[in-house]
TrEMBL record:
Transmembrane spans: 6-24
Source species, domain of life: Eukaryota
Protein source organism: Tetranychus urticae (Two-spotted spider mite)
Keywords per UniProt: Cuticle, Membrane, Transmembrane, Transmembrane helix
A single MF term (Gene Ontology): structural constituent of cuticle
Protein name as it appears in the record: Uncharacterized protein
Pfam family, one: Chitin_bind_4
């Protein structure tokens, strides 16, 4: 039996705010936060994660496994352009590993950035085109019902 977990707009907002605040803030923070639990949801279940507040190489990761072997999680990191890549994944004995959602956003503005053929278009577009493009994504961020990086696990 497969479980279905759908994160709503509030949860998505919390994830985005957390990542933007971690990677975009200039305040003093501890170097790293990490956690783990084993056997909390059956004998083979686990949960672990970490958040690194490094200015040079900020990262985060969370993963959990249930008693039936289904794994889900996410990771994020700062790419060479200074943008935050957020990837959500799932894995199961039936389907193997799959990326379920992927987002790229600017930690300084919180805006989503479009990526085509692994090239960041914001670095290639002129100001007028980019202004219209940013407006579209800013509007999407404000209206989470149209959020381009909705998170749906175990579909």
């Amino acid at each position: 039996m497969k479980a279905t977990v759908i994160l709503g707009s509030v949860e998505i907002c919390i994830v985005i705010i957390l990542i933007v605040s971690i990677f975009g803030s200039s305040g003093r923070r501890p170097g790293r936060i990490q956690y783990h639990r084993h056997g909390y949801n059956g004998g083979d279940s686990y949960e672990f994660g970490f958040i690194s507040f490094s200015k040079v190489n900020p990262q985060s990761r969370h993963e959990e496994r249930d008693e039936s072997g289904h794994v889900r999680g996410y990771y994020s990191y700062k790419d060479p352009y200074g943008l935050i890549k957020y990837v959500q994944y799932m894995a199961s004995p039936e389907t193997g590993f799959r990326i379920t959602r992927s987002c790229l956003f600017d930690p300084n503005t919180g805006n989503l950035v479009h990526q085509v053929n692994n090239r960041v278009t914001r670095l290639k577009l002129d100001g007028m085109v980019m202004g219209k493009y940013n407006h579209l994504y800013r509007h999407s961020m404000e209206s989470f019902s149209n959020f381009p990086c909705k998170i749906r696990l175990w579909s």
